[in-house]
Specification:
The chain is α/β, with parallel strands linked by helices. The chain has helices at residues 29-45, 81-90, 111-119, 146-149, 161-173, 184-190; strands spanning 52-57, 60-66, 101-107, 124-129, 154-156. The chain has a five-stranded mixed beta sheet with strand order 2-1-3-4-5. A hairpin with a 2-residue loop joins strand 1 and strand 2. The structure holds zinc ion (ZN).
Length: 193
């Protein structure tokens, strides 16, 4: 007797439709990471942790996000740049084909954001600077349950890393910034060349 295999389909946008367009390819990465870096610089200018994110579909930016909630010391760990951008994505009518969306993030997404991007069926994640303390993309997906293990989200890292790194160095070198001060990430960042 053959056991029927059930596939969990968390999102109506998970499977490609007839007008499916694949996520941007590598030649577009530099250009769109530049858009995410603009968001990161806006966050930095407001005293926030300098992370930016843009969501790209059909070769254009469809949602922007930048980190909020770190400048006031309030401990907000929800308004990460990726989550801000995703909230804008889910309000769009009609909804874009998620598998054709690429998320450009100036820092490697944390576990929360990585999971949220996978759950939404985002096609690709491209990041600039690795998060040596809290990055989530290194988790062994093959050891997780099927929803994550079978995710087709692809990851590319290190795109325009130096520009993102320079923002984090400036952030951690400023004694008026207290977010993750004296953390492993701060030490790691300030020791990068
Ligand atoms: Zn995050």
């Amino acid at each position: 007797m053959t056991k029927k295999t059930e596939r969990f389909s968390p999102s109506p946008f998970r499977f490609p439709t007839s007008d499916f367009r694949p996520p941007p390819s590598e030649p577009d990465d530099d250009r769109f990471m530049g858009e995410a870096l603009i968001e990161a610089r806006k966050a930095f200018a407001r005293g926030e942790f300098p992370v930016g994110c843009v969501l790209v579909c059909s070769n254009r930016v469809i949602a922007h996000g930048r980190r909020k909630g770190t400048a006031d010391g309030g401990g907000n760990e929800l308004d990460h740049a990726e989550m801000v951008a995703l909230r804008r994505l889910v309000k769009m009518k009609p909804a874009p084909e998620a598998a054709a969306v690429t998320a450009y993030c100036t820092m490697e997404p944390c576990l929360m954001c990585f999971s949220a991007l996978m759950l939404h069926g985002i096609g690709a994640i491209v990041y600039a600077y690795e998060d040596a303390m809290g990055g989530g993309t290194v988790c062994p997906r093959e050891r997780l349950n099927p929803l994550y293990r079978d995710s087709r989200t692809v990851i590319r890292g290190g795109i325009r890393r130096a520009e993102s790194l320079s923002l984090f160095k400036a952030f951690f070198a400023d004694p008026t910034n207290h977010y993750w001060r004296a953390s492993h990430l701060a030490e790691y960042t300030l020791n990068q060349r």
